[in-house]
Design a protein that fits this description.
Layout: H1 2-8, H2 11-15, H3 25-53, E1 56-58, E2 61-63, H4 68-77, H5 96-130, H6 133-145, E3 148-153, E4 169-173, E5 176-187, E6 196-203, E7 216-221, E8 223-225, E9 231-234, E10 237-242, E11 253-258, E12 264-269, H7 275-311, H8 332-364, H9 368-404, H10 415-422, H11 432-445, H12 450-460, H13 463-466, H14 470-493, H15 499-532, H16 539-555, H17 559-574
């Protein structure tokens, strides 16, 4: 983690940005060390318990798994909920780059637990940016500390991912609104960890236009707040059931009903009919955070697979018929799986940290042009981070089961839980298909490829240096050519046939993920190579970095050619069959 922070994301310059000068690299190291202790000693031991016991719905109340309450109390008392937020509301004002590294630990140790503070963070950001001063004064400090949690309420039974079909009503009444409707798939929509839960809800006012232009954002507390700031009466919102899921059993996924009686009291956040734009603050942060989940669960699956492969004794080396049996990590196919897991975990980590670094600079860099460029990178990378890192995380969790062999199929080893938990990451906060559509439609075609071409040019800057890396020598420039050709083709056909970009979008997202991963792994190898020119106590670490990056170059980066072919020469076939032929 520190290698990526320092060598790829230039932590020192991030800490020099306006408003962050009180942070030092030593302090960052201390934060990561303490976060690692919480993850290892508090959260990881509860991961299996949460999977087995799960959240329960008892007499209309959601009960979290045993140990969750104490862990959450430990979490907020340690100040972990507040690390990125403004000091004006009790936050610690750490850079998002550092918070991302900490967040990786939460999701690696106990993803079902980590979902709760993740969504609170998104709700805080939306309220901070768009809420009135009165709302911020009433709610932000408690949400920043974690004493109260936050949720996102978008989806409805009839709407799914189509937010234009949202039908929850918000009727004005004095200084507030009364909400009526039902929301589904609400993560931590109800629980017993805190005394209040603050819902961010999309709904329509009576005169709102149809479609997404008629959606507003409302803050709806589980319990109303009195004038003195204390907890008041229960609001007219309740959990009517929780879902029975494939994974993340410890995280309650709720169906919430608003206004079964007189109507749930809610307060407008931002401008009326601009709720979706305001909610996108939450959604983009959450999409990045889900990419971090993909990384975290992959790292956990990889660690467990390595430990098992070193301990499991089975078979003899290839070509040897007698003598002692060996641990399976010495077998070539197991080594292939572990190398695949390791190199792609490292590429994912570099990518999600890069996004966070760009996010910090887009908000704080003193140069306006640099802020604009970093914001372009954030916007372009968001669907890639969310889509590619979760798809890759699923693949790595799958390989983790495979490394365990038959024991991976047995729940007691825990390998299967990682695979089950990972599965949701490609679905919520917008499926991979939605991310791919966003990448092609909003991030490519809308600006005529400006951001994509700038990013590709940025990746080409290291082409001369890459000549010192034998494996990258052969494939790096070719991968960027594949990306450029696919981008050019999409820009060409996007003006004449909208079906073709849609059909190509998933492969295009994957192509971007592989190429950006290759760029970051090449930079990783170059940084390690530079360290090895010095006399260094950690020479083995840097040598391993180069070998891992070389594996990525040899086994992952060449797939850009196949992806380019699928995009340019295979998109017509996606829609070739008539519906009746299925």
């Amino acid at each position: 983690m520190e290698f990526v922070l320092n060598e790829l994301c230039d932590l020192e310059n991030i800490l020099a940005l306006p408003g962050l000068q009180e942070m030092t690299p030593d302090l960052v190291g201390a934060v990561l060390e303490e976060a690692g202790k919480v993850a290892s000693d508090v959260l990881a031991p509860l991961n299996r318990q949460g999977d087995i016991q799960g959240a329960r719905f008892i007499d209309g109340t959601v009960v979290t798994p045993d140990g969750w309450k104490n862990a959450y109390l430990n979490f907020i008392e340690g100040g972990w909920n507040s690390i990125t937020f403004s000091e004006d509301y009790g936050g610690q004002n750490l850079p998002y780059l550092v918070a991302t590294a900490v967040q990786e630990m939460w999701h690696a140790s106990n993803m079902a637990f980590g979902l709760c503070p993740m969504l609170t963070q998104s709700a805080v950001e939306a309220l901070f940016l768009h809420g009135s001063e009165e709302l911020k004064k009433t709610y932000l400090a408690k949400m920043v500390s974690g004493e109260w949690t936050g949720t996102m309420n978008l989806t409805e039974p009839q709407a799914g991912s189509d937010l234009s079909a949202v039908s929850t009503r918000a009727e004005p009444e004095g200084d507030h609104y009364r909400l009526h409707g039902q929301k589904i798939y609400i993560t931590y929509g109800d629980h017993d960890l805190t005394e209040n839960i603050i819902h961010m809800v999309l709904a329509r006012t009576p005169d709102a236009p149809d479609g997404v232009k008629g959606i507003s954002l409302f803050l709806v507390p589980k319990f109303l707040i009195k004038q003195d700031g204390s907890i008041g009466e229960r609001n007219d919102v309740r959990c009517v059931s929780i879902e029975h899921k494939l994974g993340i059993h410890g995280s309650p996924t709720c169906v919430l009903s608003y206004g079964d009686n007189e109507g749930a009291i809610g307060y407008l956040v931002g401008e009326e009919n601009r709720g979706l734009a305001h909610m996108f603050v939450m959604m983009n942060l959450a999409r990045h955070a889900v990419g971090v989940e993909g990384l975290g669960i992959a790292e956990r699956a990889y660690q467990q697979a390595v430990i098992y492969a070193k301990e499991r004794i089975q078979g003899r080396p290839a070509g040897v018929k007698s003598g002692d049996r060996i641990s399976i990590i010495h077998h070539a196919d197991v080594r292939r799986m572990l190398m695949s897991m390791k190199c792609e975990v490292e590429a994912m980590r570099a990518m999600v940290y890069l996004w966070a670094s760009a996010f910090d600079q887009s908000a704080r860099h003193p140069d306006r042009t640099e802020r604009q460029w970093q914001q372009q990178m954030v916007e372009l990378l968001t669907p890639i981070v969310k889509g590619w890192c979760t798809e890759t995380g699923n693949k790595i969790a799958y390989l983790g089961v495979q490394v365990h062999g038959g024991m991976g199929f047995i729940e007691e080893t825990g390998a299967a839980q990682h695979m089950r938990d990972a599965r949701i990451t490609t679905i919520y906060e917008g499926t991979t298909g939605i991310q791919a559509g966003d990448l092609v439609g909003r991030k490519l075609l809308r600006d005529g490829g400006a951001a994509a071409n700038l990013m590709t040019a940025k990746m080409r800057e290291i082409e001369p240096s890459v000549q010192s890396l034998p494996e990258f020598q052969k494939v790096y420039s070719k991968a960027l050519d594949d990306l450029a050709q696919a981008t050019g083709w999409l820009l060409q056909v996007g003006t004449t046939n909208p079906q073709l970009p849609a059909a190509a979008s998933f492969s295009y997202l994957e192509l971007w993920g592989v190429a950006v991963g290759g760029w970051l792994m090449a930079r990783s190898a170059l940084a390690a190579q530079a360290k090895l020119t010095q006399s260094h106590a950690e020479a083995d670490f840097y040598s391993a970095k180069i070998k891992t990056a070389s594996y990525y170059a040899a086994h992952v980066l060449p797939t850009t050619a196949a992806l380019r072919h699928r995009i340019i020469d295979g998109s017509d076939e996606v829609m070739a069959l008539a519906v009746e032929d299925f």
